[in-house]
Amino acid sequence: YELIVAQQPVLGRRCGFGTKDRRPISPPPIVELLITTSNGNRVNAEDVDISFLIVLCDNWQADGMTEANVIAEPSKRNLVGSLVASAIKLYNVQGQLGIYFIFSDISVRLEGVYRLGFSLVDVRSPCISSDQSSSILAKIFTNAFTIYPAKSFPGVAGMTELSQCFLKQGVKIPVRKEEDTVGNNGNSNKKKRLANDTGTG
């Protein structure tokens, strides 16, 4: 079993300790599963039973060595949202069928530079409740990404080709208005974002 990060997270806005206007990390992290036989042959995705495969997500400092899952004071999780993804078979941009895990609803409470860690688990494993580490089939880290405070947040990353591809296949992926994405006209779009933020309270 091998995990690869098919889509890297780039940035996000800290969500603090409230629940209002929580914005997910963008673009949404997407993990792909590759399975190879003992002979080195790649197993076709259509031949794999994905019913019992999940990927768990946790948060790490940029060095990839120090966990950043819990905030000491108050004692709360730093990473919030949907931290477990089930496997789904989808066609990528090249039209190839693959096994993917999509994390479209995760946010970070505090600003900083982080990496996400992903762990593949078979829920049928008898070890998952007693010793989770022994039931992990594969692990991977994302590249480092930045979580910004609200005032300096440059806007969500634009919709990627892979996200668009999966969206067309029925996957729920957050879609932001064009004025709320990085790389568009700064002043007018900032005013629109501020207006929207004010409207949400």
Using brief descriptors, characterize the structure shown.
201 residues; mainly beta; 6-stranded mixed beta sheet; 4-stranded antiparallel beta sheet; 2 helices; 14 strands; globular; disordered C terminus
Please specify the SSE layout and strand pairing.
Layout: E1 2-7, E2 11-13, E3 30-34, E4 53-61, E5 70-71, E6 76-77, E7 79-81, E8 84-86, E9 88-91, E10 97-102, E11 106-108, E12 112-122, E13 136-141, E14 145-148, H1 161-168, H2 186-199
Parallel strand pairs: 2-14
Antiparallel strand pairs: 1-3, 3-10, 4-8, 4-12, 5-6, 7-11, 9-10, 12-13, 12-14
Report on this model:
The chain is 11% helix and 33% strand. The chain is built from two helices and 14 strands. The strands form four sheets. Strands 2, 4, 8, 12, 13 and 14 form a six-stranded mixed beta sheet that branches. Strand 9 and strand 10 form a beta hairpin. Mean pLDDT is 82; it is low at 178-201.
- Cα distance, first to last residue? 46 Å
| Shape assignment | globular
Question: For the CA atoms, what is the radius of gyration?
Answer: 18 Å
Main sheet: strands, sense, barrel: 6 strands, mixed
Average pLDDT across residues? 82
Short note summarizing the structure:
With 201 residues, the protein is mostly beta strands.
